[in-house]
Amino acid sequence: MAHALSHRPRRQLPKIKTVIVAAVAYVIALIFIFPYVIMLLTSLRSQESLREATILPPVWEWGNLTDFFTSGLVDNLVVTLQVAGGSTVLVLLVALPAAYYTARHNFRFRTGFLILVLITQMFQPTAMLVGIYREFFQFGLVDSVWSLILVNGGFNLAFAVWILNAYFSSIPRELEEAAFIDGNGRFGALFRVTLPLAMPGVITALIFTFIAAWNEFVVALVLATSKENQPLTVALNSFIGQYQVDWQHLFAGSVIATIPVIILFALIERKVVGGLTAGSIK
User: Fold this and answer.
1) Are 272 and 63 in contact (CB under 8 A)?
2) Which residue of 72, 126, 158, 252 sits 20 to 30 Å from the alpha carbon of 97, by its own alpha carbon?
3) Which residues, 6 or more positions from 84, have their beta carbon under 8 angstroms from its beta carbon?
4) Domain segments of the chain: what residues?
5) pLDDT greater than 60 at residue 13
6) Measured in whole angstroms, how far is the alpha carbon of residue 56 from the centre of its chain?
7) Residue 155: which H helix or E strand, with range?
8) CB count, 10 Å around CB of 196?
9) Measured distance between the N- and C-terminal CA atoms of the chain, rounded to whole angstroms
10) CB within 8 A of 91, min separation 6: which ones?
11) pLDDT tens digits, residue range 125-142?
C-alpha cells in the first residue's frame, strides 16, 4: 500500500506567472464589478440613509425595486426593447447581404465602398442632431419609435458590415462550390454552409448593435418628446430634479435596466461557442 502511494503522481502547483496573471485578472474584474455593486446597494437604501458612510444599507428597502413596476417605467422598458430589437433586426437584414456580396464579388470600387461605409462610423449622432431632427420632422417621424430604430440602425450598420465581411471572406469559397454540386443554389449554400460558419460574426454584430441601441441616450432625448415614447435611458431622468436627486429609485431603475442585457449575454455566450464549430462538418 505504501509502495503504491509512493508512485502516485504529485499534484503540481501552478506556476508563478499563472498565479500573477490570475490575480491581475481578478483585480480587474473586481474594479469593473465594484460600480455595479455600489449601484445595487444604493438602490436598496432609504432616502434617509443615503448620506451615511456605510457600505451596507442599515435597512434594506426592497420596495425601491418593486416601485419600478408601479411607476410607469415598464412601458419605457418596452420601448427600449422595441428600439434595441428593431435596430438589431434592421442592421442584420441590411448588413448580411451587403457584407456577403462585398466578400464574394470583386466589383469595381469595392474598396472605396467599404471605406465609405467605415467613414460613416466616424460620425457621432451628437454632432448631427440638428440635421437628424430636421429630417425626421419633415417625414413626420419625430416622437416615434421608428425614428429611434432607424437612427440606431444606421449608426451601427458600418460595424456590422465590416465584421461580417471579414467573416465571410475567411470562409473558403470551395465550401459553397461543394454545396452547388450537391444541388444547392446561392441562397441554399448561404444559409446551410456560410451562415453557420459565420455565426460568431453575426452574434458579435447582434450584441454590438443591441447594446449600443439599448444604451443610446442623446438622440432619444431629442427625438422622443413624449413620455410614452421615451426609452428607459431617457425616462430615468425623471428621478433627477432641479434641487434633489432620487438616487435610490434612479439606481433601482438602472439595476433593472441591466437585467435584460445580462440575460442576453448568458444566452449568446453558448451560441458563440456553438457557432465556432457549426457547419464545419458536413
Assistant:
1) no
2) 126
3) 152, 209, 210, 211, 213, 214
4) 10-43, 65-275
5) no
6) 31
7) helix 145-170
8) 16
9) 51
10) 153, 156, 157, 160, 205, 209
11) 778 888 888 988 888 888
Cβ-contact 256, 77 below 8 angstroms: yes
What are 240's strand-pairing partners?
Answer: 245
Q: Which one has a higher pLDDT value, 204 or 91?
A: 91
Question: What are the pLDDT digits (tens) for 217-259?
Answer: 888 988 888 888 899 888 888 777 767 778 888 888 888 888 8
Q: Is the pLDDT of residue 174 over 90?
A: no
Predicted local distance difference test score (pLDDT) of residue 165: 87
Closest CA to 168 of 114, 100, 75: 100
Residue 15 has pLDDT above 80, yes or no: no
| Fold annotation for 65-275 | MetI-like fold (1.10.3720)
Who's near 204: CB < 8 A, 6+ residues apart? 163, 272
Specify the pLDDT at position 275.
Answer: 45
User: What is the crossing angle of helices 145-170 and 110-120, to 10°?
Assistant: 140
Task: Give bridge partners of residue 245 from the DSSP assignment.
Answer: 240
